[in-house]
Design goal:
The chain contains 4 helices and 46 strands. It is mainly beta. A hairpin with a 2-residue loop joins β26 and β27. The longest helix is centred in the N-terminal third of the chain and has 15 residues. It starts with a helix and ends with a strand. The N terminus is likely disordered.
Length: about 700
């Protein structure tokens, strides 16, 4: 039992202390004119100078999947989530954490979707990789400032991964071979009116682990693997109708065997989605879209020692429907619709054999909740002014408990002389699914709880003001944005894994509810044309929380309150064969809780902690470099060399706390040691397209 306990203590400690490019352009274009909306299938292969990052009229950022190939790679694989982490307003979480911390909010406040279907865990390999295969998607978008009325259910941001859904006329194969993982995507025409896209990604990290196992303790064996599989089938029976089937399955398995203490430790997590979408152009002014879907996420941590058996399963299944109609009312662009989700949740409760009889006798085992929303949205452009306004009504039903209300929103954009743009937005968002964060180290042991009588739904009032100024004939753009978020019913898990081993354990008893506010200002200088291109962004930010049970009810910094954040991405094209890229990240230390004293009771050390989040981790900074050598002149095949953490900064993953004797040997002193994972990670990969 001691080995299992040590593993759990480690997890608990981690939880508490803690382009621009010459690119091929392909995709499905939606053409909107003043008199007609129609879907046009386009498959274009061309050498075109196109910005890697574009900002739409509604303020969301769109990332070209091809452009991700030009950025430095982590162990040979490119990642759109890491590209979004380079934007101002998105805080770097650090190593072993692949989440997006947008405008001071936590990853559980983000809605991450594959073609509109929610994904509840988007990370592989403890946060090193995301689950998204670049080649399977036509675009990635991040909306961090204003969410239109058809988006909701989360407080912070919406990340949309749009699969390729054009009807291709010829077969194509693309992929990447890296150090730890490889991926491949095939686009295959089935009939003149249909096509299928198949993608797979697998890891082969275990041979590398085998080479370094000599550094482990004797008789210790570690194994890890993950797989991703995507399928998209698109059928266009006639010019007015299109049917798209999407599915995704991803699986991770981590195994650790320690023979001396006879410990067998397994951790597994799985994502699965399936959706069916029908688009119909009813007439020249009306587009109808309907979608049904299922999404499933589960985790299971198992630890065995001799005859002892312990497991901590958690799973979540959604069945949903979304429908909307785009239409015109005179010069107004309108959108109306609704959605319904049936949630089935099995939160994380330990199950054991031969440890404690009758453990967790109060385990409810299963929650069910219905979530719904209806909305309408209107958009109109005058000569200088563009307005988007919407009204959304959402609610949730869990047993006999109902929670809901209206969610108004409005965005105004005014064009000033000199192509300058001033925008303002306000919105109210509600969230009925609560992520219970147990670990901050990228471990998939966080779980979800529905809005209940004890854990109310969350709410946020958001204000955003932005100003953009083109410079040097449009080669550069300066963007300034300020934001303010007032949050209600925020949650903190005030416990640990070991607290769950109690006969009377209830999750609700360990979840605190409070309020908070996030505010800050962002600066971004972006260059989209020329051999040199990219961006540099700076964010001055505050994220504050207030809970009656913590720090006597006074305001304190949230865990990922980082005052200063600096992000940069620079790309340089030398010629048709060579291009170079550099990314840099700096973030001041996040808030943590350290022990201030320690004393002994028998042979056991007992810690006395400082006030909650009263200390800071060291600042985080990292530079990544890469070079691409393109084979031939079509820019379809290349060799990538990348250096992750190029100047070998030892960024701590967590802080190890221990004791040492005082100088006079009369007592014990606290000692802290920053624990980093690695220094420099070089990689080589081969990108291909046929």
């Amino acid at each position: 039992m001691s080995a299992i306990r040590n593993i759990l203590l480690l997890f608990a400690a981690m939880g508490s202390i803690s382009v621009y490019a010459q690119a091929d352009v392909r995709g499905d274009d939606t053409i909107r004119t003043d008199s007609i909306w129609r879907i046009q299938e386009v498959e274009v292969v061309a050498s075109k100078k196109s910005p890697a990052l574009q900002r739409s009229a509604k303020g969301d950022w769109k990332l070209d999947p091809n452009a991700v190939n030009f950025m430095p790679r982590m162990l040979g694989d490119s990642d759109p989530i890491k590209a979004f982490q380079l934007l101002p307003g998105v805080t770097t979480a650090g190593e072993l954490n692949g989440g997006l911390y947008v405008h001071g909010s936590e990853p559980g406040h983000n809605l991450i979707c594959i073609d509109g279907v929610p994904v509840y865990n988007s990370s592989h390999l403890l946060g090193f990789f995301s689950i998204f295969n670049n080649d399977h998607f036509s675009s990635f978008s991040l909306n961090k400032s204003y969410q239109p009325a058809d988006r909701g259910g989360r407080l912070a941001a919406v990340v949309e991964m749009t699969p390729r859904d054009s009807v291709v006329q010829r077969a194509s194969v693309s992929g990447n071979v890296g150090i730890l993982a490889s991926r491949i995507t095939g686009g295959i025409p089935v009939t003149p009116n249909s096509a299928i896209y198949l993608s797979a990604r697998v890891t082969y990290v275990n041979p590398i682990i085998s080479l370094i196992e000599g550094g482990f303790e004797d008789n210790t064996r570690l194994r890890y693997g993950f797989q991703d599989y995507n399928l998209t089938y698109v059928w266009k029976p006639n010019p007015k109708n299109k049917i798209v089937l999407n599915s995704y399955v991803g699986n991770d398995l981590l195994k650790l065997k320690e023979h001396q203490y006879q410990v067998d430790f397994n951790m597994q997590w799985l994502n699965g989605i399936a959706s069916l979408k029908w688009e119909r152009s009813c007439n020249e002014k009306t587009l109808l879209t309907q979608r049904i879907y299922m999404t499933h996420y589960r985790t299971n941590l198992r630890a065995n020692q001799n005859t002892l058996r312990m497991k901590m399963p958690s799973r979540l299944t959604d069945f949903g429907y979304m429908g909307n109609v785009d239409w015109r009312l005179g010069t107004w662009k309108m959108k109306s619709g609704g959605n319904f989700i049936h949630h089935i949740l099995h939160p994380q409760y330990p199950e054991s054999v031969n440890i404690f009889e009758g453990i967790n006798a109060g385990n409810p085992g299963r929650y069910e909740m219905e979530e719904f929303a209806v909305y309408t949205e209107a958009e109109k452009k005058w000569e200088k002014l563009t307005m988007n306004m919407g009204l959304r009504y959402s609610g949730s039903i869990q047993g006999d408990y109902y929670n809901g209300g209206a969610e108004p929103r409005i965005r105004l954009e005014y064009e000033l002389p000199g192509n300058r743009v001033l925008s303002f937005s306000y919105q109210l968002n509600r969230q009925y699914m609560n992520q219970i964060t147990v670990s901050s180290a990228g471990l998939p042991i966080d779980f979800w709880m529905p809005s209940t009588k004890d854990i109310s739904g969350q709410k946020v009032h958001s204000l955003d003001v932005s100003f953009s100024q083109p410079l040097r004939n449009g080669d550069y753009e300066l963007l300034v944005e300020g934001y303010y978020r007032k949050l209600s019913h925020q949650t903190i898990f005030n416990g640990g894994l070991l607290d769950m081993f109690n006969q009377t354990y209830r999750i609700e008893d360990h979840v605190l509810t409070g309020k908070g506010r996030n505010y800050g200002v962002e600066l971004m200088l972006r260059k989209s044309r020329g051999r040199w291109n990219g961006w540099i962004g700076y964010t001055l930010a505050w994220a504050e929380r207030q809970f009656p049970e913590l720090r006597e009810g006074n305001i304190f910094p949230a865990k990922y309150d980082r005052r200063h954040n600096l992000n940069a991405m620079i790309h340089y094209t030398l010629d048709n064969h060579w291009d170079f890229a550099m990314t840099f990240v700096y973030a001041s230390g996040n808030a943590v809780t350290y022990p201030r004293a320690m004393y002994m009771i028998g042979e056991n050390a007992v810690c006395v902690y400082d006030e909650y989040n009263s200390s800071r981790m060291p600042a985080y900074h990292r530079m990544d470099l890469s070079v691409n050598y393109w084979l031939g002149h079509t820019k379809k095949n290349c060799i990538n060399l990348s250096l992750y953490n190029a100047y070998m900064r030892h960024n701590p993953v967590f802080v190890q706390v221990g004791v040492k004797p005082s100088e006079d040997k009369s007592g014990l002193l606290i000692k802290k040691k920053n624990m980093s994972l690695y220094s420099l990670l070089p990689s080589v990969s081969y990108i291909f397209k046929f």
